[in-house]
Structures are given as C-alpha cells and as structure tokens.
Amino acid sequence: MWKKPWSMKEGFAIGAGLIAVGLMLQFSAGPMWWSALAYPVNVIMLAIFVLILVLAYVLKEKVYAFKFIKSYKMAVPTLVYAVVLTAIMGLTLQGKDMPLENDPLGITYMLSFWPFVLIYMMMAFTLGLDAMCKIMKGEWRKWPAIFSHLGLFIVLVCGTLGSADMQRLKMYCELGNPEWRALDDYKNTHELDIAIQLDSFTIAEYPPKVTLVDNKELKTVMQNGKPLSFNYEGGNGETTLGKWKVKVLQFLDYGAPKMANDSTMAFEKWEMNGAASALEVEASNGKTTKRGWITCGNENIPSQLLYLDDKFSLGMPEREPQKYSSKVHIMTKSGTMATTTIEVNKPVTVEGWKIYQYSYNEKAGRWSDYSVFELVTDPWLPVVYVGIGLIAIGAIGMFVIAQRRKEDEK
Amino acid sequence: MIWDYFIIFAVAAIICWVAGAAFAWKSKKSIAYGATAVGVCILFAFIVGLWIQLERPPMRTMGETRLWYSLFLPVAGLLIYSRFHYKWVLSFSTVMAVVFVCINVFKPEIHSKTLMPALQSPWFAPHVIVYMMAYAMLGAAAVMAVYLLYKKKAGNSLTELPACDSLVYVGYTFLTLGMLMGALWAKEAWGHYWAWDPKETWAAVTWMAYLGYVHLRLGAPTKHKSALWALIVCFVLLQMCWWGINYLPSAQGSSVHTYSMG
Ligand code: HEM
Questions:
Q1: Which residues are within 8 A (CB) of A275 and not within 5 positions of it... i.e. 6 or more apart?
Q2: Is the CB of B120 less than 8 angstroms away from the CB of A344?
Q3: Alpha-carbon distance values, A109 to A106, A394, B105, B241 (Å)
Q4: In testing the pocket of ligand 1, which one of A148, A388, A405 has its CB within 8 Å of the most ligand atoms?
Q5: Of A112, A184, A400, B148, which sees the most CB atoms within 10 A?
Q6: Helix (H, G, I), strand (E, B), or coil: what is residue A212?
Q7: What is the average pLDDT value for chain A, to the nearest integer?
Q8: pLDDT of A357-393, one tens digit each?
Q9: Is the pLDDT of residue A410 over 60?
C-alpha cells in the first residue's frame, strides 16, 4: 500500500482514517453543533470551503492526494462508507435533535455524528473538485456527470449549511382572534410581522363506513384479506357483510341521541356544536332481524354498536378526514391584507413565509375551535432548488448515456 | 366491486405473458412482443378501472403498488428483449410478474377509497409510478446479475454486463426523478424537502448504493465479480426502502410513509 498510483485500497484506508478522526472529534468535542452555523457563519464556511476547493484545483498536479480524491478510487470507497453510515441511521431509532440517552457513541443522532459529517464532506469535496475540473477543461461531452456532480454538490453543501437559517414555527390561532406570536420547537415565543386570523375551520369527511365487528376483539372482521365493511354513499346502501344483509334506514351527518326506552341510544337531527354522525341500520340473517343506531361517537357522545348475535355486531368506525381547511385573514406589518384558504398540501406563501395547515383540536374534530399553522422560512431554498434541477438534468443525461452506449455497441 | 374481477384480468394477462415468453424461446419475436404487450394492456385496463372506481390513484397500499410493479416488470422485460434478444428475458419477467400478481390474488390489501389529505397531491401519481418503473428496471438488473454470477462460475465470458449497466442507468434516471419529485412534494405537504424520515433515509441509501455501482463500473470495468455482487446488495437495500421499513422498529410511528400498512 501507499505506493503510487494508489488503488481503491488506499481509498478505503483514507475513508477509515476520516472515520477515526471523526470518532476522536465526537469524543472530544461532542456531536456536531449545526445550529451554530446560522448566518453569517454559514456564508463564511461556504466561502472557506470553496476557497479550499479552488486551492485543491490549482494544486492538483503538485499534490497527489488532491488528484487521488477526484478519482473513482476514492469515490467508490466514499460512497460505500456513506451507504453504511446512512444504513445504520436507517436501522436505529433516531433522536429528535440530539442522541438518545443510552447512546454514548452518538449514532442515534447521525446527522451530528462526526464520522458521518466528515464522510459527506469528503463526498461534497470530491463532487465540487470534479465538477470544477471538468468545467474548466471544457469537457461538455460529459455533461451528465457535470450536472449531477455540481447539482449534488450544491444540494449537500447549501442544504446542510442552510439548515441553520431555516425557521419552523407553530402558530395557534383561535377562531376570530388575530394571532402574530408563534412558538419554536423549544416553546420560545417569536413575534412575527405577520398576523393570521382564523375565520373558520372545516373538515370534510369521507362517507361513513359500516363494518362487521368481532364482539371479542372489537375489531373489524377480515375475510380473504379484506375487511368486511362498506362505504355508505346514499340511498339504502344494501349489502351483505358475512351472513348478514345490511340496509341503511337513515343517515344523520349531524345527530345527537334522544331519550330511548331501552339502554341503547336513538338519534335525531341536531346541527349544533358537538353533534356526531350516526346511521340507523337494519340487519337480517334470514332468521332474525335487528334494527338500531350505530355511531362513531365523539368527545361527548359515546360510540355505539348494534349487537347482532354472540359473535358479531355492526359498527361505524371513526370517519376519515378528506380535507382540512382553514379560512383565514392574513395581515402583514407592511400593510398587505388577504383572505385565503390554507389546506394540507396547499400552503400559502406570504413575505418569505410558507404557511401550512398543521393541526387542529383533534379531540373536538370537526368542531375544532382552533387551527395550528406551521410557518416555515428557508432562505437557502432557491439555491437548493437549483441543485435539484441540475441533478434532474443529470439524471436524464444518464438515460441518454444508456442510449449512447447502445449505439456504441452496434 | 371491480376487485372481485381481478382474477379474470390476472389470468388473461398471465396467459398472454406466458405465451409471449414461449414464443420468445421459439424466436418468434413479433408474436412474443405482441402477446406480452397485450398482457400489459389487460392489466393496465384493470388498474385504470380500479383508479376510476376508487376515485383516487391506486397507489396507497402495498397491494396497490405491487399491481404497478407487476405491470412494469413485463415492460422492463420487453425493453431488454427488444435490445438484447435474450430468449430467457421474457420468461424471467413473466415469472416475477406472476409472483406479484399471485400475492395480490391471495392477499389483496386494497381496502378503501380513502386517501389521507397529505397524499392528495398532483405529485403522488408520478412519484409512485416513476419509482415502480425504477424498481422494475433494477429488479431486472438484479436477476441478470444472479444469472451472470452463475454463468461466470461456469467459466463463460460476460458479454452481457453492459446490459446490466444500461438497466442501472435507466433505473437510476427513474429512481432519481422519483426521489426529487418526492422532495418537491414533501416541501408542499410537510414543510421541508428532506427530513431524514426512515423512508427517505433508505431512499438515500439505495440511491448512493446504485451510484457506487455506476462509479465502480466506470472506474474498474474489469472487476466483474465485485460489480455483480454490488448489484445484488443494491437490490437488497432497495427492498428495505420499498417494504422492509414497515417492519423496522426504528420506523414505527415516526415515519410519515408507513401508511402503506393501512
Ligand atoms: C449525483 C449522481 C451522480 C451521477 C449521475 C454521476 C455520474 C458520473 C459519470 C457519468 C461519470 C463519468 C464521467 C465521464 O468520464 O464521462 C462520473 C465520474 C465520476 N464521479 Fe460521479 N456521479 C454522481 C455522483 C458522484 C458522487 C456522489 C461522487 C463522489 C463520491 C462522484 C465521483 C465521481 C468521480 C471521482 C468521477 C471520475 C472523474 C474522472 O476521473 O474523470 N460522483 N460520475
């Protein structure tokens, strides 16, 4: 070993060395402290990193190590180490922003585990150096590699350095009250230049379901891998569940129990806060016919099954939400005022903040009296998107190369 | 419910694929192409029907993604066959597709119309379809690797290794596009493009592993055996990403992607 030209063996040895250095750092300095990289430190770090890259580029003929770094013999070991460390991350339960308590090594917060950080830095270094060499040499025939390497370089470097500038805050908005304060993950309050007033919060729900329930396990009965249930979509929705013919007599989207003469509840229409949906059903197995109300219940109203026989009952599982949406007024200090609707998957962008529907009063369900929004800013996002675009072009380039190779073969 | 008719579509498609594979052995190329393509169309018709009936893309459960996988395997088989004319390719893709179809016959896991709000996105369909295309290509490459390892042991030369490379390159294209679409979608749905959720972590592992293969082949084109083993390891990692994480304790409850169990 270490006789020039170096081979992949030396590459693996260098990678092992990086991991050893990383472990020493981990034990002496503790996990990597990403939050310390907030602006302007990250910009300075970026400048230093690029400067070192340029230096490496200039010296690559003089310093053999630099030349070696941008060869396959270093790239393959780097990728192997990255795969192994990332797989360990995927196999272990990860802490939220620090290692778990019973982990002296630090691998339960891999993102701050120094060997992991150093290997990814090595990868970024290789990518940057190789992209620079190819561009300066004008090797545009290798455009798929150039785009991919440059793109991944940008995503890795700017994504990690930028993460310290990213802010994610939660804003709890009660119906009718404008709110401008938001909490970070550590429950610190931030006063923002944006205020949000919740005008209304609605949940659209999927149609109710009727399921055959096992009395012992209180679980939906499965048959051939499929649950015995059906979605009620209007009409009398006649079906068979197991041995029972089931018919829906009445559906109340908003209902409440009225007094009944035996211990079970009957329902009537009640369109007010606290209502639950309920179905009046009739089930018959040829011998007996049972009739009654089932409901998924809610905070105030207990759920109710219809007892069929010793083994089975009919039940109505909690209705699944189809859409949460919050109608809001948004006001900013600079005087903008807008009314809009915020939904899951449809965030709203205002003055550099993206506002997401995050949560609501889950106990109250559709009667929720507040809505929680997540407000996110990420000043480095446009740069990362440029990197993502470059990787995408590079990926299409790989498709083209596959075709080109086909032609070469012929 | 259209699912009750799946067995009919499945049997029809399988008959076509088996016929296609048989004609490939007899070197009747155009019939082999035609029969396999008809089989693909039949299964595709079923998927479209299911899509319409469910009123949502059939991609939420493992069962539903398996449906797409069994659709794309014969497509991958056709692509390889049209390029390299190996007689065995269609047989392989048929056997694999049949296995996945059978799993779906016996364990459908296709439950309901409901789609949680986070999944209601224009990114959902292309994200999953592109990933399944990638999985089919990379699965074909892995099968080929096993075949080549066996062939190499018998002392033959490996003229087919470039075919593996092409499959991986095309697979890489789809894998990458799927991952990037996932990132853009995650930004819209969860506020960040990459959150190191267990599924994302394993997607990164898989992606880098295939990059490892690509660079190994570029840098050491004569290391055949390492390359073939690398392909197999890559495919094992891909299984982790696809369904393995559903069984990982580290992913339970913490992954936004484990809804595929439901
Ligand atoms: C983002 C996905 C990537 C793609 C699509 C990609 C693709 C390629 C291609 C096609 C080449 C051959 C260029 C040619 O000579 O025509 C290449 C070379 C190379 N790649 Fe990558 N690569 C990627 C990521 C990486 C990573 C992560 C590393 C580092 C760990 C890396 C390191 C290298 C090196 C060192 C070379 C050889 C440069 C030379 O000797 O000319 N690549 N890459």
A1: A254, A255, A256, A367
A2: yes
A3: 6, 31, 42, 20
A4: A148
A5: B148
A6: strand
A7: 91
A8: 999 988 788 888 999 999 999 999 999 999 999 999 9
A9: no
Distance CA A304, CA A392 (A): 53
Torsional class of B26: left (φ above 0), alpha (ψ -120 to 50), beta (otherwise): alpha
Distance from C-alpha of B112 to C-alpha of B201, rounded to nearest angstrom: 29
AA identity, residue A162: G
Residue A219: strand pairing partners: A214
Which DSSP helix (H) or strand (E) runs through A224? Answer: none
CA of B71 to the centre of ligand 1 (A): 32
Q: Which of B29, B51, B202 is nearest to B129 (CA)?
A: B51
The predicted complex's ipTM stands at 0.90
Provide the total of helices (H) and of strands (E) in chain B, helices listed first: 8, 0
In sequence order, what are the residues at sequence separation of 6 or more whose Cβ sits closer than 8 angstroms to the Cβ of residue A100? A93, A108, A109
DSSP strands (E only) in A158-235? 167-174, 178-183, 189-205, 209-214, 219-220, 222-223, 226-227, 229-231
Per-residue pLDDT of A53-91, as tens digits, reads 999 999 999 999 999 999 999 999 999 999 999 999 999
CA distance A377 to A145: 32
Does residue A262 register a pLDDT over 70? Answer: no
Question: Locate tokens 């999927």: which residue?
Answer: A206
**3-class secondary-structure state, position A292:** strand
Q: What is the number of the ligand 1 atom nearest to the C-alpha of A151?
A: 1
The answer to whether the CB atoms of A224 and B108 lie below 8 A apart is: yes
| Farthest-apart Cα atoms in chain A, separation | 96
